[in-house]
Amino acid sequence: MDVILSEAAPRTDLDLAIRVERVSHAFQTPAGTPVLALDDVSFDVPRGQFLALVGASGCGKTTILNMAAGLVQPVAGTVVVNGARVTRPSRRTGYMFARDGLLPWRSARRNIEVGLELRGVPVSERRATGSRLLDLVGLKAFGSSYPWQLSQGMRQRVALARTLAIDPDTLLMDEPFAALDAQTKLMLQTEFLRIWERDRKTVLFVTHDLAEAVALADRVIVLTCRPGRIQADIAIDLPRPRDPERIRFDHHYLRLSERVWQALKAGEAAS
Ligand SMILES: Nc1ncnc2c1ncn2[C@@H]1O[C@H](COP(=O)(O)OP(=O)(O)OP(=O)(O)O)[C@@H](O)[C@H]1O
Ligand SMILES: [Mg+2]
Predict the structure, then answer these.
(1) Which of the listed residues 20, 24, 35 should we mutate to test ligand 1's pocket, taking the one with most ligand atoms within 8 A of CB?
(2) Which tens digit of pLDDT belongs to each residue from 93-131?
Protein backbone atom coordinates (compact mmCIF):
# COMPACT_ATOMS: atom_id res chain seq x y z
CA MET A 1 0.00 0.00 0.00
CA ASP A 2 1.25 3.43 -0.90
CA VAL A 3 0.42 5.56 2.14
CA ILE A 4 1.08 9.10 1.05
CA LEU A 5 -0.16 10.87 4.15
CA SER A 6 -1.71 8.70 6.78
CA GLU A 7 -4.37 9.78 9.25
CA ALA A 8 -3.63 9.76 12.94
CA ALA A 9 -4.96 6.53 14.44
CA PRO A 10 -8.03 6.92 16.64
CA ARG A 11 -7.00 7.15 20.31
CA THR A 12 -9.74 5.01 21.80
CA ASP A 13 -12.51 2.77 20.53
CA LEU A 14 -14.92 5.63 21.20
CA ASP A 15 -13.11 7.71 18.60
CA LEU A 16 -13.55 4.95 16.06
CA ALA A 17 -16.68 4.95 13.89
CA ILE A 18 -15.82 2.25 11.35
CA ARG A 19 -13.20 -0.48 11.30
CA VAL A 20 -12.72 -2.54 8.15
CA GLU A 21 -10.30 -5.28 9.12
CA ARG A 22 -8.66 -7.68 6.70
CA VAL A 23 -11.79 -7.90 4.56
CA SER A 24 -11.83 -10.12 1.49
CA HIS A 25 -14.88 -10.94 -0.54
CA ALA A 26 -15.71 -13.11 -3.53
CA PHE A 27 -18.97 -13.32 -5.45
CA GLN A 28 -20.19 -16.41 -7.25
CA THR A 29 -20.78 -15.92 -10.98
CA PRO A 30 -23.29 -17.80 -13.16
CA ALA A 31 -20.29 -19.46 -14.87
CA GLY A 32 -19.31 -20.91 -11.51
CA THR A 33 -15.94 -19.19 -11.13
CA PRO A 34 -15.93 -16.88 -8.10
CA VAL A 35 -14.92 -13.24 -8.67
CA LEU A 36 -12.57 -11.91 -6.01
CA ALA A 37 -13.99 -8.43 -5.42
CA LEU A 38 -11.96 -7.35 -2.37
CA ASP A 39 -8.63 -8.67 -1.16
CA ASP A 40 -7.41 -8.03 2.39
CA VAL A 41 -8.71 -4.49 2.78
CA SER A 42 -8.21 -2.75 6.14
CA PHE A 43 -8.87 0.81 7.22
CA ASP A 44 -10.23 2.69 10.25
CA VAL A 45 -12.50 5.70 10.07
CA PRO A 46 -12.32 7.98 13.13
CA ARG A 47 -15.65 9.41 14.34
CA GLY A 48 -16.59 12.54 12.45
CA GLN A 49 -14.29 11.90 9.51
CA PHE A 50 -15.44 12.40 5.91
CA LEU A 51 -13.77 9.61 3.99
CA ALA A 52 -14.05 9.25 0.21
CA LEU A 53 -13.46 5.92 -1.53
CA VAL A 54 -12.42 6.08 -5.17
CA GLY A 55 -11.35 3.47 -7.69
CA ALA A 56 -12.19 2.08 -11.09
CA SER A 57 -15.60 0.60 -11.81
CA GLY A 58 -15.94 -2.86 -10.29
CA CYS A 59 -13.21 -2.44 -7.67
CA GLY A 60 -15.56 -3.14 -4.76
CA LYS A 61 -16.57 0.31 -3.49
CA THR A 62 -20.30 -0.45 -3.28
CA THR A 63 -19.48 -3.84 -1.75
CA ILE A 64 -17.64 -2.06 1.09
CA LEU A 65 -20.64 0.24 1.67
CA ASN A 66 -22.99 -2.76 1.59
CA MET A 67 -20.84 -4.45 4.22
CA ALA A 68 -20.86 -1.35 6.44
CA ALA A 69 -24.66 -1.24 5.97
CA GLY A 70 -25.03 -4.89 6.97
CA LEU A 71 -26.38 -5.95 3.57
CA VAL A 72 -23.39 -8.13 2.61
CA GLN A 73 -21.26 -10.27 4.93
CA PRO A 74 -17.56 -10.52 4.02
CA VAL A 75 -16.25 -14.02 3.36
CA ALA A 76 -13.15 -13.10 5.39
CA GLY A 77 -12.41 -10.32 7.85
CA THR A 78 -14.73 -8.09 9.84
CA VAL A 79 -16.51 -4.78 9.55
CA VAL A 80 -17.23 -2.97 12.82
CA VAL A 81 -19.47 0.10 12.96
CA ASN A 82 -19.95 2.03 16.21
CA GLY A 83 -18.23 -0.65 18.23
CA ALA A 84 -20.26 -3.62 17.00
CA ARG A 85 -19.53 -6.14 14.29
CA VAL A 86 -22.02 -5.51 11.48
CA THR A 87 -24.31 -8.47 10.89
CA ARG A 88 -27.50 -6.67 9.83
CA PRO A 89 -28.70 -3.13 8.99
CA SER A 90 -28.68 -0.67 11.89
CA ARG A 91 -30.93 2.29 12.63
CA ARG A 92 -27.85 4.33 13.43
CA THR A 93 -26.52 4.05 9.88
CA GLY A 94 -28.01 5.95 6.92
CA TYR A 95 -27.44 4.69 3.39
CA MET A 96 -27.93 6.87 0.31
CA PHE A 97 -27.83 4.68 -2.78
CA ALA A 98 -26.46 5.58 -6.19
CA ARG A 99 -30.02 5.81 -7.54
CA ASP A 100 -32.37 7.95 -5.51
CA GLY A 101 -34.77 5.04 -4.86
CA LEU A 102 -37.68 7.33 -4.00
CA LEU A 103 -41.08 5.71 -3.61
CA PRO A 104 -43.11 7.01 -6.61
CA TRP A 105 -46.45 6.85 -4.81
CA ARG A 106 -45.28 9.10 -1.98
CA SER A 107 -44.86 12.87 -2.05
CA ALA A 108 -41.43 14.40 -1.37
CA ARG A 109 -42.43 15.02 2.25
CA ARG A 110 -43.73 11.48 2.76
CA ASN A 111 -40.58 10.05 1.17
CA ILE A 112 -38.48 12.04 3.63
CA GLU A 113 -40.62 10.86 6.54
CA VAL A 114 -40.70 7.18 5.56
CA GLY A 115 -37.91 6.08 7.94
CA LEU A 116 -39.56 7.89 10.86
CA GLU A 117 -42.91 6.34 9.99
CA LEU A 118 -41.38 2.86 10.03
CA ARG A 119 -40.01 3.63 13.48
CA GLY A 120 -43.43 4.65 14.74
CA VAL A 121 -42.47 8.30 15.34
CA PRO A 122 -45.68 10.28 16.13
CA VAL A 123 -47.18 12.25 13.22
CA SER A 124 -46.56 15.71 14.72
CA GLU A 125 -42.88 14.93 15.26
CA ARG A 126 -42.59 13.46 11.75
CA ARG A 127 -44.18 16.51 10.21
CA ALA A 128 -41.82 18.82 12.11
CA THR A 129 -38.74 16.86 10.97
CA GLY A 130 -40.10 16.68 7.39
CA SER A 131 -40.61 20.46 7.30
CA ARG A 132 -37.18 21.18 8.76
CA LEU A 133 -35.47 18.93 6.22
CA LEU A 134 -37.48 20.18 3.24
CA ASP A 135 -36.30 23.63 4.22
CA LEU A 136 -32.71 22.47 4.76
CA VAL A 137 -32.44 21.02 1.23
CA GLY A 138 -34.20 23.99 -0.37
CA LEU A 139 -37.47 22.22 -1.22
CA LYS A 140 -39.88 24.00 1.10
CA ALA A 141 -42.34 24.64 -1.72
CA PHE A 142 -42.21 21.08 -3.08
CA GLY A 143 -43.24 18.92 -0.13
CA SER A 144 -46.42 17.76 -1.83
CA SER A 145 -44.80 17.08 -5.22
CA TYR A 146 -44.33 13.49 -6.31
CA PRO A 147 -40.92 12.19 -7.52
CA TRP A 148 -42.03 12.29 -11.18
CA GLN A 149 -42.80 16.00 -10.78
CA LEU A 150 -39.25 16.77 -9.61
CA SER A 151 -35.97 17.23 -11.49
CA GLN A 152 -33.15 14.74 -10.88
CA GLY A 153 -31.36 17.29 -8.67
CA MET A 154 -34.50 17.79 -6.60
CA ARG A 155 -34.98 14.03 -6.28
CA GLN A 156 -31.41 13.69 -5.02
CA ARG A 157 -32.15 16.38 -2.44
CA VAL A 158 -35.20 14.44 -1.28
CA ALA A 159 -33.06 11.29 -1.05
CA LEU A 160 -30.47 13.22 0.98
CA ALA A 161 -33.16 14.60 3.30
CA ARG A 162 -34.62 11.10 3.71
CA THR A 163 -31.18 9.81 4.75
CA LEU A 164 -30.70 12.68 7.21
CA ALA A 165 -34.24 12.32 8.64
CA ILE A 166 -33.35 9.28 10.73
CA ASP A 167 -30.45 11.28 12.22
CA PRO A 168 -27.86 8.55 11.61
CA ASP A 169 -24.46 8.54 13.34
CA THR A 170 -22.86 7.24 10.17
CA LEU A 171 -23.68 8.15 6.59
CA LEU A 172 -22.92 5.78 3.72
CA MET A 173 -23.23 7.50 0.35
CA ASP A 174 -22.82 5.76 -2.99
CA GLU A 175 -22.18 8.25 -5.81
CA PRO A 176 -24.99 10.45 -4.48
CA PHE A 177 -24.44 13.27 -6.98
CA ALA A 178 -23.32 11.25 -10.02
CA ALA A 179 -26.49 11.65 -12.05
CA LEU A 180 -26.42 15.44 -11.95
CA ASP A 181 -25.23 18.11 -14.38
CA ALA A 182 -22.09 19.99 -13.35
CA GLN A 183 -23.88 23.05 -11.96
CA THR A 184 -26.50 21.17 -9.96
CA LYS A 185 -23.79 18.88 -8.65
CA LEU A 186 -21.73 21.82 -7.41
CA MET A 187 -24.78 23.34 -5.77
CA LEU A 188 -25.68 20.10 -3.98
CA GLN A 189 -22.06 19.48 -2.93
CA THR A 190 -22.01 22.96 -1.42
CA GLU A 191 -25.31 22.40 0.37
CA PHE A 192 -24.25 19.01 1.62
CA LEU A 193 -20.96 20.35 2.99
CA ARG A 194 -22.81 23.16 4.74
CA ILE A 195 -25.11 20.59 6.38
CA TRP A 196 -22.24 18.22 7.18
CA GLU A 197 -19.99 20.90 8.64
CA ARG A 198 -22.62 21.70 11.28
CA ASP A 199 -22.58 18.34 13.06
CA ARG A 200 -19.83 16.36 11.31
CA LYS A 201 -21.24 12.88 11.15
CA THR A 202 -18.94 10.12 10.00
CA VAL A 203 -19.26 9.81 6.21
CA LEU A 204 -18.14 7.01 3.91
CA PHE A 205 -18.60 8.51 0.46
CA VAL A 206 -18.08 6.67 -2.83
CA THR A 207 -17.46 8.65 -5.99
CA HIS A 208 -15.86 8.41 -9.42
CA ASP A 209 -15.36 12.14 -9.43
CA LEU A 210 -11.87 12.83 -8.05
CA ALA A 211 -12.51 16.58 -7.89
CA GLU A 212 -15.54 15.87 -5.71
CA ALA A 213 -13.59 13.49 -3.47
CA VAL A 214 -10.84 16.05 -2.81
CA ALA A 215 -13.21 19.01 -2.44
CA LEU A 216 -15.44 17.29 0.13
CA ALA A 217 -13.42 14.73 2.07
CA ASP A 218 -10.91 14.76 4.93
CA ARG A 219 -9.25 11.73 3.44
CA VAL A 220 -9.33 9.77 0.18
CA ILE A 221 -8.69 6.04 -0.10
CA VAL A 222 -7.83 4.87 -3.62
CA LEU A 223 -8.58 1.23 -4.45
CA THR A 224 -6.93 -0.91 -7.10
CA CYS A 225 -9.18 -2.68 -9.55
CA ARG A 226 -10.33 -6.30 -9.19
CA PRO A 227 -9.54 -7.36 -6.67
CA GLY A 228 -9.94 -4.14 -4.72
CA ARG A 229 -6.92 -3.43 -2.52
CA ILE A 230 -5.83 -0.18 -0.96
CA GLN A 231 -3.50 1.62 -3.32
CA ALA A 232 -3.21 4.89 -1.40
CA ASP A 233 -4.56 6.61 1.68
CA ILE A 234 -4.32 10.36 1.26
CA ALA A 235 -5.12 12.98 3.92
CA ILE A 236 -6.90 16.01 2.45
CA ASP A 237 -5.59 18.72 4.73
CA LEU A 238 -7.54 21.60 3.25
CA PRO A 239 -9.09 24.06 5.73
CA ARG A 240 -12.81 24.07 6.53
CA PRO A 241 -15.35 25.39 5.97
CA ARG A 242 -14.78 24.72 2.30
CA ASP A 243 -16.48 26.09 -0.73
CA PRO A 244 -16.38 23.34 -3.40
CA GLU A 245 -16.63 25.96 -6.14
CA ARG A 246 -13.77 28.18 -5.03
CA ILE A 247 -11.49 25.44 -3.75
CA ARG A 248 -10.98 24.20 -7.30
CA PHE A 249 -8.57 27.06 -7.89
CA ASP A 250 -6.52 26.50 -4.72
CA HIS A 251 -2.91 25.37 -5.35
CA HIS A 252 -2.88 22.83 -2.56
CA TYR A 253 -6.20 21.40 -3.79
CA LEU A 254 -4.65 20.96 -7.23
CA ARG A 255 -1.60 19.23 -5.76
CA LEU A 256 -3.79 16.84 -3.77
CA SER A 257 -5.97 16.13 -6.82
CA GLU A 258 -2.84 15.29 -8.78
CA ARG A 259 -1.76 12.83 -6.03
CA VAL A 260 -5.15 11.13 -6.06
CA TRP A 261 -5.09 10.96 -9.84
CA GLN A 262 -1.57 9.45 -9.87
CA ALA A 263 -2.61 6.88 -7.25
CA LEU A 264 -5.66 5.92 -9.30
CA LYS A 265 -3.49 5.43 -12.40
CA ALA A 266 -0.96 3.39 -10.39
CA GLY A 267 -3.83 1.31 -8.99
CA GLU A 268 -5.15 0.56 -12.47
CA ALA A 269 -1.67 -0.34 -13.70
CA ALA A 270 -1.17 -2.66 -10.71
CA SER A 271 -4.31 -4.68 -11.42
N1 LIG B 1 -24.34 -9.48 -6.30
C2 LIG B 1 -23.24 -9.74 -7.01
N3 LIG B 1 -23.07 -10.93 -7.63
C4 LIG B 1 -21.95 -11.21 -8.32
N5 LIG B 1 -20.91 -10.35 -8.46
C6 LIG B 1 -21.04 -9.15 -7.87
C7 LIG B 1 -22.20 -8.77 -7.12
N8 LIG B 1 -22.02 -7.50 -6.66
C9 LIG B 1 -20.82 -7.12 -7.10
N10 LIG B 1 -20.23 -8.09 -7.82
C11 LIG B 1 -18.89 -8.03 -8.42
O12 LIG B 1 -17.98 -7.54 -7.45
C13 LIG B 1 -17.12 -6.57 -7.99
C14 LIG B 1 -17.25 -5.29 -7.20
O15 LIG B 1 -18.54 -4.74 -7.38
P16 LIG B 1 -18.96 -3.34 -6.75
O17 LIG B 1 -20.37 -3.11 -7.13
O18 LIG B 1 -18.62 -3.32 -5.32
O19 LIG B 1 -17.98 -2.36 -7.54
P20 LIG B 1 -17.92 -0.77 -7.54
O21 LIG B 1 -16.51 -0.40 -7.21
O22 LIG B 1 -18.99 -0.21 -6.69
O23 LIG B 1 -18.19 -0.45 -9.08
P24 LIG B 1 -18.93 0.84 -9.75
O25 LIG B 1 -17.95 1.94 -9.64
O26 LIG B 1 -19.15 0.41 -11.15
O27 LIG B 1 -20.21 1.07 -9.01
C28 LIG B 1 -17.48 -6.46 -9.46
O29 LIG B 1 -16.56 -7.21 -10.19
C30 LIG B 1 -18.86 -7.05 -9.58
O31 LIG B 1 -19.00 -7.73 -10.81
MG1 LIG C 1 -20.69 0.93 -7.11
Answers:
(1) 35
(2) 999 987 778 999 999 999 999 999 988 999 999 999 999
